[in-house]
User: Fold Ribonuclease R from Flavobacterium gawalongense.
Amino acid sequence: MSKRLRKPIKKEKDFSDKILKILSQSANKAFNYKQIGAKLELDDTQSRNQIIKDLKILASQNKIIESEPGKYLVKAVSKDYYEGKIDMTGRKTAYFVCPDLEEDVFIPTNNLNHALDKDIVKVYVYNRRKGKRPEGEVIEVIERNKTDFVGVIDIQKNFSFVSTANPKMYTDIFIPKDKIGAAEQGDVVLVHIEDWPDRADSPFGKVIKVLGKPGEHDTEIHAILAEYGLPAEFPIEVETYAKKIDTSIEASEIAKRRDMRDTLTFTIDPKDAKDFDDALSFKKLENGNYEIGIHIADVSYYLEEGTILDDEAYQRATSVYLVDRVVPMLPEVLSNFACSLRPNEEKYTFSAIFEITEKSQVVNQWFGRTVIFSDQRFSYEEAQYIIETKDDIIPEEIAITGSSYQVAEEIVSATLKLDELAKIFRKRRMAEGAISFDKVEVKFNLDQNGEPQGVYFKISKDANHLIEEFMLLANKKVAEFIGKQKKTFIYRIHDEPNEDKLIAMQTVIAKFGYKIDFRNKGDISKSLNALMEEVNGKKEQNLIDTLAIRSMSKAKYSTDNIGHYGLAFDYYSHFTSPIRRYPDVMVHRLLQHYLDGGKSVDEETYETKCVHSSTMEGLATNAERDSIKYMQVKYMQDHQDQEFLGVISGVTEWGIYVEIIENKCEGMCRIRDIKDDYYTFDEKQYALTGATSGKLLQLGDEIYVKVKNADLVKKQLDFNFLRRIEEPLK
Assistant:
């Protein structure tokens, strides 16, 4: 007798997660089962019954509450819901970063729900069991990090798409036909996201600016600025306002200031500088001590609060130093003229004046507004020549005047004495735990069209350290002066290094035979300094310098003073560069306010300004870094037939990163393009291992490469692997 076949039991759907998502997105609104059914587009009886059942189960689990009969709200605080920031990977997935969670939460692509990189979101966290990687789903985008993006437009018959070169932007932007503006096929454009409908794969946007054709120099530089929301020029009304400011030096104003015009004063700056923020004055006192003035452009005298000029300066918060141009915080009439401490001109300054002994001990200090007259302008190279040779004749090849000239004896003597005192200050700082990061800066020799003709490295020498030490002294003493009064102030703070990053760095540098001492805070800074000294001039220097800087916390502005770890200062502020940094302008204003006997200002107001300044500084740094990458790619584009010796600076499962030793340009050799063997990634050794030969390509190895591809738009270099340094030329 045949058995009767059983009908398969239909598995009931579970709508719990979707119900929680709907309630979480409208946290203060109560829903009944019909409203939830409508949101889910379900109106059959079976689904509605299941929704009713799931609502009761969730209520019994205390995940939601029944606010009135048949109506439900999500609980105000749930242990599974968190607010934080999205950190996109380059693989269309993300991590959710939240200070309330011990580890970052993985967000798969299909759980992003329209969240983009650095958005503030609410996330529901699954799999919070031990041994399982936590995963989450974005429930709500609370705040977009950015809504303007740079990309290349692809125009179709009835619509367009804009695709970006940013690997963390995982979607194209849909542009309706009537919102492409003046864009033409293939243009680089700036677009604004206006909407992202629930069921749309891509956000909807409109073109707000056409930047030009891909690969053109000005297009790519303007694209870098636009990508970070940085302005390329001043609004016409701001320029007009700045030009109307009275920049004359008046006897009535001089009378209110300490007159330093008769004291020997000079500036030391980069040879191509136009904005001279700071000057040093020098006078030997009868008691054998030295009166040394650090004189800073009195920007706050011209920059009045509440004006459109001040609003613009605050919004910018910093000048941006791109590879071929400066985007100033202040219009040129102020930055390069009225406020710039140019030689042989009277200038209003804000000064920190110290009486200092032969052993670099500060025995007296004074802060206030002054008027100065700069007797001489030096480049760092000229000042360095005086320090090294003690000669008073500046040779033609380094003279900024273009011809050889003689320096006054009193200026030579002052420069040499300031150098002596600065070296004592520096030695003392290092002994107290300061860390010396003299990272090599890559610079380009550009022709009149902004094309790179060569690469050179900017290295800090004694003249740079001289200026640095006296600027540090002023910044430290100003912060200390106000900080000890317990009044609201703007500090430049730097937290202790992240130990996990230091341990990761130790793993890498061990490959080169180096190590860090972790016993205590002092030992870490001493061993980092010893490491910096040991790697100086070696092939791995740039790699290790970069790793060391990345292991450090980021310095930022705050009203909450925790000291500055990297400088080993309990008090530190930014007082010395108000032409190019808005926090310095605020420091000047607060210092004068307190010198005048003013009460402590509102901390919350200034903390908001600190956060804004730190954010803008970060964006400017990213833009500066991108512009260097762009110029490196452009430079290498013209050297495609040349062999280069490089050092392996990174190893991944998809290939090796190689830094060219002679110019610091970095690119990738993809694993599939390394033809002398079949390589696999060995994570423990930071190496690629050849399956046949067993040979390694590991961090720090020197290899020869040639440019395979130079992509100006993506700012990426691809190399072809040629051979190891020890292998003969084939």
